[in-house]
Amino acid sequence: MLVYDFDGNNLPPVPLPTRIPKGIFQVDTDKEIVTIGILPFRYMENKSIIWQQDMKGNIIQETDATPFFAYDDFSNEVSNNQNTGQFDFYIFHWGAQEDSLYHYDKAANRLVPIFTIPFETEEIPKHDYIELPGHYIAEITTKVVGGTSMGGMNILVDKQTLKGCYFNLINDFLGNMLITRPIFYFQDGKFTLNMDPGNLLDALETVLAKSANLPDTEIQKLTEFKNSISIDDNNYLLTGKLKQEAKKLTASTGTEAIPIQIKSTKETGTIDSTEQENPDLIYYTATLETWKSYFPAHNKYKDWDSKNAKQVLIGANIDKYGKPHDVKIIKSSGIKELDEEAMRLIQAAPIVPAKNKDGKNVEQTNWGIPVYFPPR
């Protein structure tokens, strides 16, 4: 981890104990403690999802990554927004699965689930969660273009009542300008939107074209602001501090509330209530432990040209005996023969089933694994 002072001078770097495919961190400069969370690839040498270390690279404490493993795909993301003073932690899974937003309890050295949405649908949509002082935001992906999530529905949930609604975020300082994909603009207790001057001009022109309901003074202010902008300007930063006490959700007059099923995963005391109620709760995910030998030995296309390497992302439900069911393609290679071979390989694979906290085999749904051509 590279370190600089405010004059741009190099300071001694902070060594890290492992590779970090994607990660987030927080530095306590007074205590000289670094808290680091990573995207937990299954086959990395490090088996920690989150840890604390000193500035010399010595691990103080670490949390086992096994229950949180993600398949080795950089389409997944890890995030930490710190809008409430808590060290929040969330993994976005490209191969969507039911999951939770967590807080890292440093005293207990564990990730505590605080929020999730039970979709209760056959196909779980891609989704993302963040926490605000008084609410949670969920973004549900409804459109993917060129392998990129383009967002979709935004859901706002009151922390106290767990009532939720669909919402749009607008900037009422700029004529009710629509802010698309608002989940990306809340960090460290602030709203921050970095806008290219050309994009800001386009947005202001859109607002002014629909300004019939704006007062004349507002139109004049927006027009003067637009005229002051040059496309050669530096970027414009729109920022504001979040209120730490948020009002409860209220429906606008004349609108119909749309019920949304929301589930809080807050725990009581130090024991996760979900674990008490559900003996089938997965603590160790299903895994193909022999992947290094299995794929080269059984892949019909093991000699596939490495210069044209391909990957198929396979999803399945794994029963308590390790047998895959409902095997499907989540992300195609674009080549029918490779897709079919990937499905065959997983259907025949010797998978170790998921286990609960007591070590008993349990069923796992929405399990995912990549198949590479040629095998890695």
From TrEMBL:
Pfam families: TonB_C (PF03544)
GO CC term, one of those recorded: membrane
Domain TonB C-terminal, chain residue ranges per copy: 312-373
Keywords from the UniProt entry: Membrane, Transmembrane, Transmembrane helix
Origin superkingdom: Bacteria
GO biological process, one term: transmembrane transport
Ribosomal protein recorded as keyword: no
UniProt topology in membrane: Single-pass membrane protein
Subcellular location: Membrane
Record bears the keyword Membrane: yes
Name by which UniProt lists this protein: TonB family domain-containing protein
Species in which this protein is naturally found: Parabacteroides johnsonii CL02T12C29
